[in-house]
Amino acid sequence: MDKIFIYQFTDPTCVWCWGNEPELRAIDYLYGDKVEIRFITGGLIEDISTFYRINADKSQIISKSNQLLAEEWVATSAIHGMPVVANNMHLYTEQYPSSFPQNIAYHAAKSINPQKAKDFLRRIREATFTEGQRTSQIDVLIELATESDIDPVEFINQFTYGSSQAEFISDRMKCRRHGITGFPSYLIKRADTYIILGGYQRLSSLQSAINRLSRGRCHPRRIGPSLANVTEFIKHYKSVYPKEIEVAFNIDNDRASLMINQLRQNKKIHTSPVGNSLRISILHPKQASHAGIGTEPTSTIESSQNNENKKLKSATFKIKEKALT
Asked: At a CB cut-off of 8 Å and minimum separation 6, what does 5 contact?
């Protein structure tokens, strides 16, 4: 049977796209290589000063726009269940007024390693919505790329000199050709047949489209919500949120909370508060012996940091070099 492809029309800073992460992870986890998820970047905000209709000077417009976006994040989080940290949100400034750099950065990473680029996109979303980072800044993008196991020098070369900007423009044209006017939207395809779904989607809607396109022959794995299976899910993705467990295992918030508490009491996981939710990761044996807080040997950290610092200095020099030409 032909593979099913799910294309999400997206922007790394779209709060509704962040809200659909649980559904995309559930599809990935339950269907495996039967379904492949890909991303088409449309660019949500070209210039924040023109995104809302606000009559004021530019600095006041940007400040008010950040405030309005923060309010939207909180309101939508109450619906989709993924955490946000909106206090003193300052994603946009006069120097960084656009979400286009995050989109271009995704294409830079994709040209290096498509799978790692997906992890990188996830980290951009996470850093934007739960860590308060200004993810349009190149130094922040370099750090997130490095965390995603992407070589920082190669990333900078692709971001600065590669075809990533052209790829982003090409993606924007795809959005227009398909009549996409909002994010997320989805094109779900098998061979030459496809279905377009507009807006935030529940897992059942995505599964219904998969079922229609495959004529009922593409089935998800049946994985029960046992403590062992939930632990494996967390281990597979390294870092998850309660809503992602709820969606992947089709359980309600109360049951997910109970299981998370049991795993924490059994010293299987580590949790940390994030906005209105928790970030969950596997607690490794060495960490468990230190009351849930693990540390690397200092020499290992210092050696790793020295190597990365050398790479980043070289990458930064290249950016400055281009600025002078």
From this structure: 35, 36, 37, 38, 188, 189, 190
